[in-house]
Every structure is written in C-alpha cells, then in structure tokens.
Amino acid sequence: MTLGLSFVSRSSGLLAALVCLIGTGCQSVPNAHQASRVPQFGGIDATQPAELRKVSLPAYTIDPPDELEISIRPSLPDWSANTFTVGSDGTVDLGFSGQVHVMGLTLADAEAKIAAQVDETSGASGHKASVRLSNGQSKYYYVMGIVGAPGRFKVTGNETVLDAIMIAGLKTNSLPDKAYLVRPHPLGSADEVLAIDWQGIKDRGDTLTNYQIMPGDRVVVPGTKPPGLIRTLLGN
C-alpha cells in the first residue's frame, strides 16, 4: 500500500510538472525572470525629431551605389546616357568628359563640379549640369535583435521607430519594452542612445519616443531565450 501511494504521489508530481511546462501561466514565470534581467539602454530625449514633430533630413549626400540622372546644357554631341551609377571609387563616368568624383557631395555641389569639368574637357564655357537622384541606394537604417526580419531598410525621410519595428516584425520572445535606438556619431564623441517607450507608443499613442528615423540609425529590440519545442508546438 505504501509503495502504491508513493507511486501515485510521484505520478501526480510528474503530471503537475508537465502541465506547468505546457501551461501559459507557468511559462510566464521564467520568461518574466529573463525579461527582468535584460537592461534598458538609453534615455529619453524630448528634443529629438519624432512623430508629429518631424524635420527635413539634411541635404542628400551622394555615395556609392546611388544612381544619378545627369543632363548637360548645351547638349554635348557625344552625350548618349543620362543615368549614371556612382562607382565604388566615388566617381561617375561621363564618357569623353571623363570621370568626376562626386562621393560626399550634395546634388547641387555635384552639378557645379560636373559643369566645370565639361567646360574644361569640351573647350567651351557656360555649360550647366542638372543632377537628380533617380535611385537612392546608400541611405539605410537597421533593425537588429530579436525581430522577425532583421536587416537594413531604405530611409525615405518619413519613417519612425514604430514603422521600423512594425516592418521588421516582433517574435514571441521579443522585448519591445526594452527597445532602444542607437544613432551614429563621430569617432570620439559621446554615444547617442535613445530609450523607446513601447507601451506609450502602442497603447497610449504617445509620440514622445516615436523618434524619426535618420540615415544610419540602429533600432535594437532585445529578447529572451527562444521558446522550447513544446511551447512552440502549442503556439504559445
């Protein structure tokens, strides 16, 4: 009889442990413990551009492999193409007018430099150049960490932190409450790390930390350990 009671007791304990493993209530305990150990980086800065207080991005600077639409007036007799890709050396090849280094220049500065080179190579003065960005390929932001689709995404000038996180997608073990934004800074200057109030953005429509995305920004979403096999199969 004692042996039977002992077996039943152990069986009940094993059954309870199994229920705890697959139940959402028991699963939340280790997850909450893991989440509490993930630090929150950065601070809130109300002076940063954000939703409802966006700013124009700085003048576009040309970098490889941007595609530029270039036209010259008066037209050159040997001018056949009007779309040029900025090479890895930072130049565009204008054919008989030679190569022009445009990397790091604004579109207006590139116009002046190209016109000056065409004047020099053609032997005639007064040329004007028009440079337009036909396909920007060098300005991106990044979403990293525990998200559905980490990677780099093009900057259009209108994105916010909310856009970035929604585009990348969250996973069951993502911790958007601990998300933060890292902004590139010159070597030797102070780090610029901005905390994101995800609950404020999502639940209250608070725009304070829904920062406007700038070229080069990194949005980082930490997370806990991935769910175990049983929990994954159950969809929890």
Order of helices and strands: HHEEEEHEEEHEEHEH
Strand fraction band? 15-25%
Instruction: State the CATH architecture of one domain.
Output: Roll
CATH fold naming of one domain: Outer membrane lipoprotein wza fold like
CATH homologous superfamily (4th level) name of one domain:
Outer membrane lipoprotein wza domain like
**How would the global form be characterised?**
elongated
> How confident overall, as mean pLDDT?
86
State the major sheet.
5 strands, mixed
Which residues sit in consecutive blocks of at least 5 with pLDDT less than 50?
A: 16-27
Overall number of strands: 10
Put simply, the count of helices is 6
Strand order of the largest sheet: 7-6-10-8-9
| C-alpha Rg (nearest Å) | 28 Å
Which CATH class of one domain?
Answer: Alpha Beta
Helix content: 25-40%
C-alpha termini separation: 40 Å
Which helices and strands occur, and which strands form pairs?
Layout: H1 2-22, H2 24-36, E1 67-73, E2 83-85, E3 91-93, E4 99-101, H3 107-122, E5 128-135, E6 140-145, E7 151-154, H4 161-168, E8 180-183, E9 192-195, H5 198-203, E10 218-221, H6 229-234
Parallel strand pairs: 6-10
Antiparallel strand pairs: 1-2, 1-5, 3-4, 6-7, 8-9, 8-10
Helix pairs in contact: 1-2
